[in-house]
Specification:
117 residues; mainly alpha; 0% strand
Length: 117
């Protein structure tokens, strides 16, 4: 269980970096100077990595809560890491939501909405 918790922790930190890059307008243009491989990696892996982290963290949280009343392989340190991972995933969601909300409030609708008009 320690390895699974550590893996999700590392993935959550990577997701924050990907979320920051995804919401940066210069990242998607050649003016930003970012390599094409990095752009493709962020574009292709962000959502599957997010789904992996959320589902894995949900399963670990349930296992931790189910084993809290009896002797289990979870330690207090793992419980703290699970809470920190939920905080990191919440931060990832907040970064994406904040930028999208500011674009909509500022009148910059996504291309899919403009194309439907």
């Amino acid at each position: 269980m320690v390895l699974a918790t550590a893996l999700i922790f590392v993935c959550a930190i990577i997701l924050i970096g990907f979320a920051i890059l995804r919401e940066d307008q210069l990242f998607w243009t050649n003016a930003g100077g970012y390599p094409l491989l990095l752009r493709d990696t962020v574009r292709v892996t962000f959502l599957p990595l997010l789904a992996f982290c959320v589902l894995g963290l949900f399963a670990l949280s349930l296992a931790c809560l189910a084993g809290a009343s009896k002797a289990s392989c979870f330690t207090a340190l793992e419980a703290v890491f699970i809470i920190v991972c939920w905080g990191l995933l919440t931060t990832t969601g907040f970064i994406a939501f904040r930028n999208n909300a500011s674009n909509i409030i500022g009148g910059k609708c996504p291309a899919t909405i403009k194309a439907g008009r």
